[in-house]
Amino acid sequence: MMGLAFDGAKTVSLHDFPDPAPGPGEVVLRITASGMCGSDLHYYRAAPTSAPALIGGHEPAGMVEVLGDGLEPGLLSVGDRVMVHHYAGCGACSSCRTGWSQMCTTAASLVYGKNAHGAHAPYMTVSARSVLPLPDALSDLAGAAIGCGTGTAWGALERVGDVGGRDVVVVGQGPVGLSVTMLAAARGATVIAVDPVPSRLEQARRLGASEVIDPGATDAAEAVRELTEGGAAIAIDTSGASAATASAIDSLAPWGRLCVVGLGGRIELDVRKYLSRQITVMTSWSLSSVQQIACADFVARHAVPVDELFTDRWTLDEADRAYAEFDRQAAGKAAFVF
After folding, report:
1. Where is the Enoyl reductase (ER) domain (predicted)?
2. Pairing with 25, which of 209, 241, 244, 284 sits 20 to 30 Å away (CA)?
3. What is the DSSP string of 216-256?
């Protein structure tokens, strides 16, 4: 079986891997869609490594192909359409039992596509606990996105609490930021989208943003304060840029909440400036498996147009071109389809 590995130095390669077989408590999936996530670029741009090749990709959707031994009867059946919570822990600690296997307290979690083979291949072995139902109303592409990018947006919204009727600033309108925009709007928020790229701001409007701000043309925090007559209740930063995070903090109203999901930036607070405003700053790390199911159900029930995030669909033999294009960050979300 051919699978894609990240070699570093902005190169990828296809390797011939053994066909997967499930161990006890595992299943083999036939992959139908494997999303390309912004975090893939950390591996793509990294220094070359001599470590054994590992199949990348952590946004799988597909069908159950083979069941391993020891599964609970009726839990899964061959042919089930599924998505994947792309972590696996011990299954017994309090974190795992509440769906937060990435925060397993008794063992090092498996992260598919990072320290266990991922989804950029025709087949993938995963823990049965990580396999989640994909609603019939959703496409395979939507299921892949909900596994991380769109799911990360949902997790951030869950962290900040009820957004209905509130002003929500979404900083960065890449695939995760656009997902926050569409989900927050569907949950009743008034969304203000911030991004320096005009095409992304246009898409943000199509996906539910009430207002858009180009931070290259104006002071974004000041513009938010003017639009909201004092500041937004909530800001979610998906940009990973320190300056953008600082602007997001400055856009908050008293008692405002900032949730940061973008990787790469730093947060610095002038305590004297913000102490009396009683703001809350938090992080959010993807989402739990329980939240992933809730997100998929919400997207299906409210016809949230997750498929519109995808601008590029690739086959595995186009991997070099796919990641070179994705690295430019000039388009939307991309995926390999099988």
Report:
1. 8-336
2. 284
3. TTS-HHHHHHHHHTS-EEEEEE-S--HHHHHHHHHTEEEEE
Q: How far apart are CA 265 and CA 185, in angstroms?
A: 26
Largest CA distance in the chain: 60
- Alpha-carbon gap, residue 54 to 46, rounded angstroms: 14
Closest CA to 76 of 134, 13, 19: 134
Letter for the amino acid at 52?
Answer: P
Residue 285 CB neighbour total at 10 angstroms: 13
Residues 6+ apart with CB under 8 A from 21: 28, 66, 125
**Confidence band for 238, pLDDT divided at 50, 70 and 90:** very high
Quickly tell me which residue has 């499930």 as its tokens.
22
Question: What does the alpha-carbon distance between residue 45 and residue 269 come to, in Å, rounded to a whole number?
Answer: 30
Tell me the DSSP string of 126-167. EEGGGEEE--TTS-HHHHHHHTTHHHHHHHHHHHH---TTSE
What is the H or E stretch that residue 296 is in? Answer: helix 289-301
d(CA 113, CA 37): 11
Task: Tell the CATH topology of 154-283.
Answer: Rossmann fold (3.40.50)
- Averaged over 272-291, what is the pLDDT? 95
pLDDT top residue among 213 and 74: 213
Give CB contacts under 8 A, 24+ apart, made by 71-79: 71/25, 71/27, 71/128, 75/128, 76/27, 76/128, 76/131
What is the pLDDT averaged over residues 261-278? 88
Among 76, 239, 40, CA closest to 148: 40
Contact (CB, 8 A) for 102 and 289 = no
Every domain of the chain and the residues it spans:
2-148+287-337, 154-283
60: left (phi over 0), alpha (psi -120 to 50) or beta: beta
CB-based contact 54:5 (threshold 8 Å): yes
Task: Please report the pLDDT score of residue 108 as a whole number.
Answer: 79
- DSSP 8-class letter at 37: -
**Residue-level pLDDT at 265:** 82
pLDDT in the model for residue 61:
98
Domain range 2-148+287-337, CATH architecture: Alpha-Beta Complex (3.90)
